[in-house]
Amino acid sequence: MFLVKVFPPPAKSGVNLQGHFNMENVTEYSLTVDDDLIPSTREEKPISVEMEEGEMDEHAGVPIDYNLYRKFWILQDFFRYPLQVYNRVSWKQMQHNTEEVLRCFTSYKLDEVKMSSRNITSLKQPDRDVYFAKYLTNQKLLDLELSDSNFRRSVLVQLLILFQFLMASVKFKLDVQELSEEQSKWVSDCTERVYELIKETPPGGEKFAEIVKHVLSREINWNHWKNEGCPSFVSKVFETDKPPKTQKSRKRSIADEYRLKDKKINLGNTELSRLWNLAPDNLGACRSQARVFLPSLEDFFEDAIYQVESPSDVAETEKLVNDGNYGWRALRLLARCSPHFFTYSNMPPKTLPLYLEGMIKKLAKDLPSSLIKHEEVAEEEDEQQEEDEEFLKHEQEEAEQVNEKAAESQLETVSKDQVQALAARVLGRWKKLAKLLHFEDDEIEYFESEAASVAEQAEKMLQVWAENLTDASPPVLRPALSECELESAWHEVFGHDAATADK
User: Of the candidates 478, 480, 479, which has an alpha carbon nearest to the alpha carbon of residue 492?
Assistant: First the structure.
């Protein structure tokens, strides 16, 4: 924020061009259940008791448990670092927690009557706005915070910012950091639900929703501006009426001091003076055709062409193509005079001598005084082309075999009924099986948090494995079950299907 205030908008130092996130902004919350929040320990107020006007029912509101408390504050970690949402497990956790929070906001809505009953409208407004950098995360305060309209608006706006980031085209995102069509539809639906909740949150929900939508639309323009490299907002001013430039008098050069009356220069040495005064314009003399020492292709490659035509007459070590000095000069000449130098080839040569031999064969066709028989060169090129085609055909056949094997491995899939039957047999060994199926520790913790019983946890793990992995099939699962001493379970669930597939 300090850099944003100090630097002007076009300066890249104050706009966070690469989109770094503040990883130090960590929201800490309780990891254990508070005993005071257990519903069984609360003494319920009798229904027949009448409450006076303005009295606050401490049992009315949102039923808060530890699961809702944990899921609610976990969302702050996704707001802090949105890129982790592109992970498969993190996306499911964010999606599930968001649904729970929105369902809570929808089931318990704020209105003007509830706010007036709690004396919210009668509170004296301060002379200036009060800024709170963080909300308190105590478990006992969550039900009161959910009844605060400002708190609700803060969380809902954070969700809108996260959704807009996931849907926007950001320059520094990787190619794999992109939502699928199903995920994009879920984000769009949740965005509409969030706007509806903002409109239903008093006071002035409709007006506040319009303001948020306007601010986020302007943020899209800022994102496009950053993707384009932050061009300057200041347009160039073209001056039409400029004062005429005064011509400065040419300074006397050092050569004028040595120039004689007949416009010749005396350098103090007879030979140097003669060389300097050979031409009136020294730069023009350097560009003269008489000073062009670049040889022609025919003259330079004449001996090399003869050596290629008659390889038996010259020893291999004495060939010009094997001379590094000759090869360096040949490359420079080819780059300036021959179009074959820039021709693309699917089979680039491994060494410079091989490359020069190929270039000499191509030049022999163009040079009128070629010493190489054109028929022999054509036959060698045809043979080279046939070798290239045979090599490409072999590569294509190997690729087709790999694709066929991959297609055969994908034919066998695991059904939902098989997942349920196998989960009932795995039970307590599902964590070891998850490790063998290449699940990470954080994914295993996610399965434990999503289900209460061991059977449900095993079924959740197997369902994610069967739905999301491309190689999920009974043959892949069999070695992992053997490691867990559960090969009998594989035969009970997949034995009949495997025998049918073999037939």
Answer: 478
